[in-house]
Amino acid sequence: MTPPVLSVVIPMYNEQEVLPLLIARLRPLLDGAGLDYEVVAVDDGSSDATAPMLLLACREWAELRVVRLRRNSGHQAALTAGLHRARGEYVASIDADLQDPPEKILDMLALARAESLDIVYGVRDDRTTDTAFKRHTAQVYYLLMRRLVGKKVPADAGDFRLLSRAAVEALRAMPERQPVYRLLVPWLGFPSGEVTYRREARAAGSTKYPLSKMIKLAVDSVTNFSAAPLRLATWSGLLSFFACFVLGCYSVVRFAMGETVSGWTSLFTAILFLGGVQLLCLGLLGEYMGRLYTEIKGRPTYIVGYDSAEAGQVVAR
Ligand code: UDP
Ligand code: MG
């Protein structure tokens, strides 16, 4: 079987409201593009009607492949499952909620082919449809990530992008258990381009990224890419040592002058400060140790319960 030119990977978690709209927009677009394609819909352990709806759709849409994960493993894990299964020469990833216009996938493909690029990012030039909270947290996130990973990380590029087979294989070769693709992809260093687009409001349903999942993504991003927070421990240790040294000299000088520094407040402050610094450092160490533990256990990022291309086989990675 020759691989298709284009694979479109779509992670979905409880997207029953948006699924009919997505199919109605994506299918005519891809059918009309005049190329061989496949759509890999990854159902990230949805508890609503997403799974049965996908199975129904895949009966009469031959190009649709449905992969169902046994449990909700998160957006990045669902993306991993999709990237591992996509067979196309180029692999696009897009959210299910139509915030990213599927039409742009064809622009990305045209750009990648015309300029022999391995990566084409979808970059949002307008996020006014996102909530103010989302925009501000995103701003801080991208600012931090550009400092940690380098300037290569395009600001406001989420997980809407196109990858060549070479880039997908490079990602697949990474044994990471908690990948953050918006950082790993620029880190690869392949030739890349951008297609800008306007971020629409979610077509239906509600966000599947509550604050807890946003925080997890942020912590994963920092700890995956940098040991800088560990160095923070050294710096705060040095700083508190310096503060204690100054304070110590001060009391010795006062003592030499025949006085003693009175009161418990300064003592208490110093104790609390040191306690705080130590707890912070322990917490940081714990965070990295937890990560090491997860990587060493080597548990799969996701477990596939069903794959329409393998008809019911249980496959774990
Ligand atoms: N998603 C997923 N698993 C999750 C959470 C989200 O597969 O645990 C999918 C979701 O269905 C959507 C994409 O990830 O296709 C982005 O989620 P969403 O649009 O809710 O995030 P937001 O745009 O609000 O940041
Ligand atoms: Mg969305």
TrEMBL record:
Key word Glycosyltransferase present: yes
Compartments, as annotated in UniProt: Membrane
The entry's keywords: Glycosyltransferase, Membrane, Transferase, Transmembrane, Transmembrane helix
Residue ranges of the TM segments: 232-253, 265-285
Main location: membrane
Entry's family note: Belongs to the glycosyltransferase 2 family.
Protein's recorded name: Glucosyl transferase
Lineage: Bacteria, Bacillati, Actinomycetota, Actinomycetes, Micromonosporales
Start and end residues of each Glycosyltransferase 2-like domain: 7-171
GO function terms (MF aspect): glycosyltransferase activity
Gene source species: Catellatospora citrea
InterPro entries in the record: Glyco_trans_2-like, Glycosyltransferase_2, Nucleotide-diphossugar_trans
Top-level taxon of the source organism: Bacteria
Membrane topology (UniProt): Multi-pass membrane protein
Entries under Pfam families matching the protein: Glycos_transf_2
Keyword Glycosyltransferase annotated: yes
GO annotation, cellular component aspect: plasma membrane
